[in-house]
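User: My collaborator sent over this chain with a note saying "see what the structure looks like." That's all I know about it. Can you take a look?
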Amino acid sequence: MHARKTVIASAALLMVGAVSRGADGPVALGQPAATALFERLKGLAGHWKSHGSRGYDEESVVKVIAGGSVVDVASTGAHPGEEMRTVYHMDRDRLLLTHYCIAKNQPRLVATAYDPSAGTARFEFLDATNLPSRDKGHMDKVELRFLDQDHVIERWTWYANGKESWMEEADARRQR
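Assistant: Without extra context I'll predict from the sequence alone. Here is the result:
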């Protein structure tokens, strides 16, 4: 259901940090890694074009807003006539992502892993608004692979009825 979805083979992800679920959800990536990942996301500001494995082409505009405290990603093209947003921000010592989805819910994910040398990061489901049950369909996880400053691969995971399914592979390239 999301346009900017990307696939990275899990085997290729070499993550630093816990990826386990505690009693209250995923274990958040600690400091200073969360801040380092947020700074890397800020570096994505600009115009991007993506091609998804399901055949869509998408355009995204990444902006750093609110005094540098938010990275806002507006994407169009995957769903005709629709725009979705993904917003990243720090919450004290953890990095959060809120995805405003065409599915009409707003899952919040927390950064759980980041390996700057491998250029990989992972966000996992924390909670959501407008989602009556976790078993209702929603974006549940995203893995990012920063190939360089102008090329990012994403893998978004959809969750419904008690199980995950791979959503889409997107290859995003900065436009100059």
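A starting point for your reply to your collaborator: Helices lie at 33-42.
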